[in-house]
Amino acid sequence: MNEPARDPGLQPERTGLAWSRTAFVTLLFSALLLRGGIVHHEPLLAWAGVVLLAATGALYAWAGWRLRMTATLALTQGAPVTTASTWVIRITTLVVALVGLTVAASVLYHGQLIARLAALMR
Prior knowledge:
single chain, mainly alpha, 82% helix
């Protein structure tokens, strides 16, 4: 007996949009790190911003690719989650955690970073 085709509905689009939003927020944070690192002569923050900016570009590219692949796989095979998906999620989590640790190390090392970032927001 033939099984009916799986109807993915809007789930692939919602997932793709969620990844795009994540990439956009990551882009904003990387810009803030870059600016803070350059303006206040903090090379550690500037490098963290560069790494996060590169990760953001990769995340944007992957989000678009995943949206297309998820929609295609859901219509043809019924299995939208791929091995690449789980690895990208792991790598993204690792990059965000490393950047967070870098910022925390900079705060502990310099002690005045929060005041400097607050001054940038004014």
